[in-house]
Amino acid sequence: MQLKFRYPIVIHISLWLLVLVALMWYQGFEDGFFYVLLNNFLIVLCYAILVYFNLNYLIINYLLNNKFLQYSGLLLLSCLVITTLRELMQYFLYDLAGDTDAKEFLLSTLNLQLLLAFLVVGTSTIIKIIGDWVRQSKERQELQTRTMQSELRFLKSQINPHFLFNTLNNLYALTLKKDDKAPEIVLKLSEMMRYMLYECNERRVPLKKEVNYIRNYLDLEQLRQGGNIAIKFEVNGQIKDQQIAPLMFIPFLENSFKHGVNNLLTKGFVNVVLNVDEQHINFFIENSKADMIVPPAQRRIGGIGLVNVKQRLDLLYPSHYELDIDDNPKSYAVNLLIDL
């Protein structure tokens, strides 16, 4: 049968053994090994009793319940009782050994021994408070991370099916017309689906893959819209190894077509500009629109709503983004600056 020890228990035992060895080494072995061992074992045992009584009873029942006066009084009382008992046991040990000098020294340093006991227990209180604070901070951070990941998965699940639904509708319309553009749409759609299914599961993705996704998206819309809509996509700056949250810009692209140019009876436009450097990404999109068809209060972006887009930005880039929306009678513009 294999025994399994809990690491904290092993660590505690090792620390007390280390203290015991240090005390024995400090006292020396002139009076005999077993005599020195027993004397210092009594000291370490009493310190250990005080420390664990403090950690497992006094702190839990008094200090954590804001009973500071009761805690301080019981702490002093326990130090006084345990130290006195230890001194009595040491006194009888010295008496049996005939060590008169040790007996006199013991009686003359009672106050000092009480102070040392209080310092040892007080140190254990400080370590306990710091350890609990570190543990709680770590738990809060882990909880925030799990919550963030859960919310991001939910937000992404809202984005992807909506885009797929729209694209399949477009493809279905072209296949009914037996349009020659249908195979090209299938190819681009397969690239986009591969990106969404296999590469968008990470917190960050390479910016160049996100840009390629945007190009495919706009190409699909250009094929579907024909010559009715002028679509421009401009990238300024060098795309190297920058990382970006996946599908961050797609809700704004969807919005530009769904609530913008799709409602126009005449020609319209969608202009997309991406300015990139090593530290910042500036995404700008502007689209023409008809007179107010959808009230602003009811307008949603990409099927998930502007509120959820901002929520995702808050989760991924807290205090590191600026989002400006300019809603005019004839155009709708979004300017998103992200600090990487």
General description of the model:
This protein is α+β, with helices and mostly antiparallel strands and 340 residues long. It has two domains: 7-108; 146-339, Histidine kinase-like ATPase, C-terminal domain (Heat Shock Protein 90). 64% of the residues lie in helices and 14% in strands. The strands form two sheets. It has a five-stranded mixed sheet with strand order 2-4-5-7-6, with helices on one face. A two-stranded antiparallel sheet has the order 1-3. Helix 2 (33-63) crosses helix 5, helix 5 runs antiparallel to helix 6 and helix 6 (182-199) runs antiparallel to helix 7. The chain is rod-shaped and about 110 Å long. It starts with 6 loop residues before the first helix and ends with a strand.
Quaternary state reads single chain
CATH superfamily of the largest domain: Histidine kinase-like ATPase, C-terminal domain
Describe the main β-sheet briefly: 5 strands, mixed
Estimated radius of gyration: 36 Å
N/C terminus separation: 54 Å
What fraction of residues sit in β-strands?
A: 5-15%
Unreliable runs: 1-6, 293-304
Summarize the structure.
The chain is an alpha+beta fold. It has helices at residues 7-27, 33-63, 68-97, 100-108, 110-176, 182-199, 207-225, 250-258, 305-316, and strands spanning 205-206, 229-236, 243-244, 268-276, 280-288, 321-327, 331-339.
